[in-house]
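dumping this here before i forget
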Amino acid sequence: MSALSELYKEIANCHQCELARQRTKVVPGEGAEDAAIAFIGEAPGWHEDQQGRPFVGPAGQFLDELLASIGLRRQQVYICNVLKCRPPGNRDPLPTEIKTCQQWLDRQLQLLHPKIIVTLGRYSMARFFPGETISKIHGRARKDGGLVYFAMYHPAAALHQQKLRETIQADMLKIPTLLAEVRGVPETKAADKPQQLSLL
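structure:
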């Protein structure tokens, strides 16, 4: 059994906050354990709570479409959330819940070693882009410690505000270029333009 699978067992046994009492299923995350890209959302919704899988509702269907637009399937990336249990009524995550759950996300990322972390929504963004607002930095990348962080609106935002759909689609199309650069393919171009991986 992999270290990530062992971690899922620990998460399933977590009762460190009130959310654990109300969940149907814990939603640790899923995807390739050697994924170059990790997508981090905010919290499970109703569909996710029922199935124990991230992004399986309407927002997840849009995420699948976004991945397909850059030639990827969800099995090739890693998908998780800041919170591993659904907040009641799909309310926003509380600061105490985010802090309590942070250990699980930290350990996931340590085991995964992704090259790019894509934040989906403002709560995920706040973790990696402190003090920023998503309306200002969506579609921008920041490199720190060998990792590239890329901020996007949450796919659910497109379900509530149709005008954001094209924005999210356009931001997603930037990811292949970032991945090619961080992998050094082509090496000469990546070496010539390291500044592209800074916050633009």
